[in-house]
Amino acid sequence: MPTFFDEMYDADRHVREHYRKFEAWQNGQAQERIKAKRAEADLIFRQVGITFAVYGDNAGTERLIPFDIIPHIIPAEEWSRMQQGLVQRVRALNMFAHDIYHDQNIVKAGIVPAEQIFRNSQYRPEMQGVSVASDIYAHIAGIDIVRTEGGEFYALEDNLRVPSGVSYVLENRKMMMRLFPELFESHRIAPVAHYPNMLLENLRSVAPQGVEDPTVVVMTPGMYNSAFFEHAFLAQQMGVELVEGQDLFVDNNAVYMRTTHGPKRVDVIYRRVDDDFLDPLAFRPDSTLGVPGLLSVYRAGRVSLANAIGTGVADDKSIYPFVPDMIRFYLSEDPLLQNVPTYQCRKKSDLEYVLANISSLVVKEVHGAGGYGMLVGPASSSGEIENFRQRVLANPGGYIAQPTLALSTCPTYVESGIAPRHIDLRPFVLSGEKISILPGGLTRVALKEGSLVVNSSQGGGTKDTWVLEEDDAKPYR
């Protein structure tokens, strides 16, 4: 029977110090009040339209992301250590992205094999030699963090293309403050409401050279995208326009937005559209989501895109095993956040090990996302395992494997009452003139007993994440 690190209780079932005030409050709550507050949260989230598409869900195309009212609490000292590791990791990833599209020193040094980059489906040869503002590729990064049975934090995944979920961080906090204001009087919790201002400042700081008062827009694939709520929410919170590809056009080597007052020059596009669909003249000719000619303006340095085209090669799961080497190569530092041990099925010895132990491993497609394209060996049937074995054999380079991690648990309200459920954490790291991190991030929780799949697209829920400030004795203001 595996052991799991419990965020709230130690091995002797004593409440951890940073949870003591919360547990004392929780023990004083009538169950009727908690039940009513949980129902109120569901009602408000439904009214506001905070939904997410769950693919394959027969109940419909969209549903609420379940919200749990027991927070994930992180003490200041732990957060400080994690934050340092996140800054280090994102700095190295940005340097890697710049390097592979310019001098390729890490390839020449023999650290990352050339085929891992240039045969990667996310590599964009159109970006070779192109300079981007401040040499930043991943302006917004979501780094998935897990804690294992020993209490150590690991970086599980780097999301550098169009990482989603930050709107739920902000809405979860607003909901907790509305439902239980007394908790914010008894705890000093680092605020998160300033994130839209942080994001806007970050985006404005990477405008094309010479632009004094940049116009920023959020570009969405449209209302049928699973994360459309977030696109609209962030545009509204930043006070900028939400646009689709058809709202933009290229003229005289610049990007313009159609408005009721005529064309308006656009300088920075926070795009939530994948590379393939951004410009039908450069990538997929059948795309109706993009802007014809956008790449040419971008290559000329007359518009900034966040995140940069081609960033996906740096967050591909086949590149993930090399991130500690990147940190040592570019920064001459040892990694502060460790990787999860990873087997690369493209290697003969790793493939043999994975095939021999597949029932005890987590096997992932290198281009997979959202919990799709993966096998959790211990939770799979013999038929599912054999089917996945054949898929790996047919394309070994398309898969990696990792030990089945004993993800930490956090008490969670479920139908039977309060029970431990597995969680992870996605902090959001902004890179511009400086690197800044939203305190905490999105805590995702696997609501099914024993499940290790926390993704919202797979039916997981979320929690408010509290980073306690140094002096938690004083009330929150």
From TrEMBL:
Superkingdom of origin: Bacteria
Acidic residues composition-biased segments: 467-477
Chain spans, region Disordered: 456-477
Domain (Circularly permuted ATP-grasp type) ranges: 71-446
Regions annotated as coiled coil: none
Gene3D superfamilies in UniProt: 3.30.1490.270, 3.40.50.11290
Listed transmembrane segments: none
Official protein name in the record: Circularly permuted type 2 ATP-grasp protein
UniProt organism field: Keguizhuia sedimenti
Native organism taxonomy: Bacteria, Pseudomonadati, Pseudomonadota, Betaproteobacteria, Burkholderiales
